[in-house]
Design goal:
By secondary structure, this protein is mostly helical. Helix 24 links the parallel strand 3 and strand 4. The chain starts with 9 loop residues before the first helix and ends in a 6-residue tail after the last strand.
Length: 486
């Protein structure tokens, strides 16, 4: 065309950008972007939305946002491209911000912008945002769309509301594809509800749908979360033999995790060493956590070393193995781990916890005093610690990586971010009586906070749900659904 010569128009460029995104071919896409600038078509909505999609698919979200921000007249396709692109690139905050901007500017929604916003809310486990977008989908009529419905199931599932997810699923069941069934099974798997996962799997086959690798990943995840190693082995075998599907590294990771959780540490290591894949960091991290939980500190140290080969600055490896040594009272080894961290300039990643109140997210750090209700929060937390102490709560000092005085240890443990978020939730009325308090944490919840939350659920007579980096914890009447293993 250029040799003819005939200049491309906005539709030509859009098709070419789409082709570059599908290949993917970023280098040719950059040349096309330069051409679109030269012929003044880079800000045309048709061209720009395709360019936003290209940069999103090639994992350049900042480039995508720059292109979008330069569009003078944005339509619903432009907004859908940026919302979906940011959600797919793990930028949920920005995705929701653009979705909000779209609604404020009066631009109409599409099934893609709505599903993208739901995916972003799911990534944040932002329940209120999920509900708001669900309401918007009902008003706009997109709630009956299978793509939006699947995103709703995924969103509610990742927020821990499997009942709401099941309600959406049942309404759309006749039209639901295997992707929707997998999303529903994954929601149950996160809760460790393997019975519901297996039941849905059978119903899906009766409906004539063919299970795929993600169907089996949901099943194996559910067995991993409850430590049913035998069932995990059986289903992995069925996947290979009965369904002729090749298990991926993720499937083997679930099996290794289930073995570790069941205390079959040597079997888990054997599978990791003999599976048809090179073990990656999640495999060794799963075994490391299991070794630490079962008190096998020697094996934990071996797993930590293997994990650190992937990233010598992985703070989680040092923290988990140091906690294992501390739990065994082996303080010389704890000092050795801490020295190794210092020599490699590794710092423990800061914990963050957040809680949503009336659509607004409140974020807390450890010993945080920036909140306007700081005095009330700290007073409430002191009251809670005093009350649970009467019930038998004893701080788990081994969560501290160094030997300091008892007073210093108590203060350090007392002001963890998840405890502050919980205290704020209680003083702010984050949820009405009868409804659970929901907290999200960017790291693994520590054992002391886990123990404290079990007692606090008895004191306040409330259900407390914490989503940490590993799983959901549902605290009620002094116990947790994880059975103290995560």
């Amino acid at each position: 065309m250029l040799r003819h010569p005939t200049l491309p128009n906005h539709r030509t460029l859009a098709v070419l950008f789409k082709s570059c995104a599908s290949l993917p071919s970023l280098s040719f896409g950059l040349q096309l972007h330069a051409l679109s600038l030269k012929i003044s078509l880079s800000t045309h909505p048709f061209t720009a939305s395709a360019l936003v999609n290209l940069y999103s698919k090639t994992h350049l979200p900042d480039h995508a946002m720059k292109v979008f921000d330069e569009i003078p007249k944005r339509d619903e396709v432009c907004y859908a491209a940026i919302v979906v692109g940011l959600a797919q690139n793990s930028r949920p905050d920005e995705a929701l911000s653009y979705f909000s901007g779209m609604r404020k500017s009066g631009v109409g929604s599409t099934m893609y912008s709505v599903s993208g916003a739901l995916s972003a809310a799911a990534g944040l486990a932002a329940l209120e945002q999920c509900r708001i977008i669900h309401g918007h989908a009902v008003v706009t009529g997109f709630d009956s769309n299978v793509i939006v419905g699947t995103a709703l199931i995924d969103g509610y599932g990742k927020c821990g509301l499997v009942t709401e997810a099941r309600g959406v699923f049942d309404e759309l069941r006749p039209e639901m594809s295997v992707i929707g069934w997998n999303a529903m099974m994954a929601g149950f798997a996160q809760q460790g509800d393997w019975n519901s996962v297996v039941e849905l799997f059978g119903e899906m086959e009766i409906m004539g749908l063919k299970p795929d690798e993600y169907s089996f990943l949901a099943i194996l995840s559910s067995f991993h979360n409850v430590g049913f190693a035998g069932e995990a082995e059986k289903w992995l075998s069925r996947m290979r033999v009965d369904y002729r599907l090749a298990p991926s590294l993720e499937h083997y990771t679930c099996l290794v995790g289930a073995m570790g959780r069941a205390g079959r540490l040597e079997d888990g290591e054997r599978i990791a060493m003999t599976m048809p894949f090179e073990p990656d960091a999640p495999v060794w991290r799963a075994l490391l956590s299991s070794c630490a939980q079962h008190g096998n500190v020697e094996m934990a140290w071996t797993m930590a070393k293997r994990l650190l080969r992937f990233d010598p600055c992985d703070d989680s490896a040092y923290v988990i193995v140091a906690n294992a040594f501390a739990g065994a009272g082996r303080w010389d080894e704890v000092k050795e781990v801490r020295k190794l961290m210092k020599d490699r300039r590794v710092r423990k990643k800061g914990g963050r916890s957040w809680i949503e109140v009336q659509g607004q997210v409140h974020v807390f750090l450890a010993a945080d005093r920036r909140h306007e209700k700081t005095e009330e929060i700290y007073a409430k937390l002191a009251e809670l610690i005093q009350e649970i102490g009467k019930l038998g709560y004893v701080p788990l000092w081994e969560e501290m990586l160094h030997e300091v005085g008892e007073r210093e240890k108590q203060e350090a443990l007392m002001y963890h971010s998840e405890k502050l978020a919980l205290a704020f939730g209680l003083v702010s009325g984050a949820a009405p009586l009868g409804k659970p308090l929901r907290i999200v944490k960017n790291l693994r919840i520590c054992r002391d906070c886990h123990e404290a939350f079990k007692y606090i659920s008895r004191v306040v007579e409330r259900e407390i749900i914490v989503r940490d980096v590993n799983r959901y914890h549902r605290f009620l009447d002094g116990s947790c659904n994880c059975k103290d293993f995560w």
